[in-house]
Design goal:
The complex is a heterodimer of chains A (113) and B (110). Chain A is mainly β. Chain A has one helix and eleven strands; from the N terminus they run E-E-E-E-E-E-H-E-E-E-E-E. The longest helix of chain A has 6 residues, at 59-64. In chain B, strands 2, 4, 5, 9, 10 and 11 form a six-stranded mixed beta sheet that branches. By secondary structure, chain B is an all-beta fold. Chain B has strands at residues 4-7, 10-14, 19-25, 29-37, 43-49, 52-56, 59-64, 69-74, 83-91, 98-100, 104-109. The chains are: A mainly beta (113), B mainly beta (110). Chain A binds chain B through residues 1-2, 31, 33, 35, 40-43, 45, 48, 55-56, 89, 91, 93, 95, 97-107, and chain B through 30-31, 33, 35, 40-45, 48, 84, 86, 88, 90, 94-100, 102-103.
């Protein structure tokens, strides 16, 4: 029921490498969220945007990730220097508003060797 | 920090029976969403509630912000209901970020 597109579906990187993933939100959804889900089903909020502006982000994202949502281009989330602990499923969600239903994409599964 | 405690962690039902999943919140939440993870691993939206109850087919959900809980009732369970169910809540005064429970793995048996 979601039209959020995430690419790639799978990503394998070595430690220290950059890892970049992209998200195309549903049409007409100005708000985009990124979450990280680990193998224990723990979800961690990373960052959200309204249009091109960052609304909120956690400390880890500010220090180690680069994220943007340019107009007329996919949103992206990039780990600047991958660590083994970054291996997880990265989920993008979009929403019609900041406090509204969030629709999730299928995720990008990152494996850091 | 704000937490969402989801129970049970695992549930087994026979076809045609029903049960309830519950999420308790450690603080007042503004809204709750319920999801089911499908066989391809995607999160499927079931409900979004800012208050009260909603029903969709054999599923019914309730959210009580004051009492800090939400429930998801499944009746007449079918084999295709098997999967992992998550609740996720929005804290008040936030930018909409969701705080997830750890999920309930439901297995429906013939």
């Amino acid at each position: 029921n979601s039209k959020v597109i995430q690419t790639p579906r799978y990503l394998v990187k070595g430690q220290g490498q950059k890892a970049k993933m992209r998200c195309i939100p549903e049409k007409g959804h100005p708000v985009v969220f990124w979450y990280q889900q680990n193998k224990n089903n723990e979800f961690k909020f990373l960052i959200n945007f309204q249009n091109q502006e960052v609304l909120q982000q956690i400390d880890m994202t500010e220090k180690r990730f680069s994220a943007e949502c340019p107009s007329n281009s996919p949103c992206s989330l990039e780990i600047q220097s991958s660590e083994a602990g970054d291996s997880a499923l990265y989920l993008c969600a979009s929403s019609p508003g900041g406090q509204d239903t969030q629709y999730f994409g299928p995720g990008t599964r990152l494996l850091v060797l | 920090g704000d937490q969402v405690e989801q129970s049970p962690s695992a549930l087994s039902l026979h076809e045609g029976t029903g049960s309830a999943l519950r999420c308790n919140f450690t603080t007042t939440m503004r809204a709750v969403q319920w999801f089911r993870k499908n066989s391809r691993g995607s999160l499927i939206n079931l409900f979004y509630l800012a208050s009260g109850t909603k029903e969709n087919g054999r599923l019914k959900s309730a959210f009580d912000s004051k009492e800090r809980y939400s429930t998801l009732h499944i009746r007449d369970a079918q084999l295709e209901d098997s999967g992992t169910y998550f609740c996720a809540a929005e804290a008040t005064g936030n930018t909409g970020k969701l705080i997830f429970g750890l999920g309930t793995t439901l297995q429906v048996q013939p």
